[in-house]
Structures
1.
Amino acid sequence: MLTPATRLRLQAILERIGNDEPVSLQERIYVQKFADHDQGVGLWLRQARRRRSEAGPGDGIDRFLDALQLGPSEPEAPYRPGEDDIEDWFGSAPGWLRRS
């Protein structure tokens, strides 16, 4: 259970994370400690990171998917749209599949 003072401090730090403002290492460790033990704080942290990584408002389906929290929580996701190629996904597939 979070005290009101702790909740306000966490939300202030998370607001700065979401706005891509400077956050000290001690503050990040503080937030992560609570996120590891409290699902609500973990959700707040994922939402702040997602807000930070958003490029724009997007269309309705993007907002819907963001609300579901299905995507990667880290902005440093391993998928690289400009570099990854679909051919790599089928590199070890049988020959008949690679030809089609």
2.
Amino acid sequence: MDDRALARIESDPNYIKLVSERKSFGWTLTIIMLVLYYGYIALVAFDPAMIAAKLSGSITIGLVLGVALILVSIILTGIYVLRANSQYDDLTQAIVEAAAKGGAK
């Protein structure tokens, strides 16, 4: 691909929108996950008695929170995939079609 084609793609409004939205959404999900993960670690570090409190038998609050953290990460990944499949793929297809025609739409 030559420099002119790359410049056309980079100036395509669909490309600009794709990069902006994907970056913003990706960082939002990353920050959510980091806050939850480090919050869990902070609880382990600063309130181990609360984490060790038993709910039922040998099931503790820490175990439930750990499983919830894993489930939240799976859910956030699913949310990203749904958005990528519904919005980002459409934008990517529009960019590819415009590049194939030789100009941005």
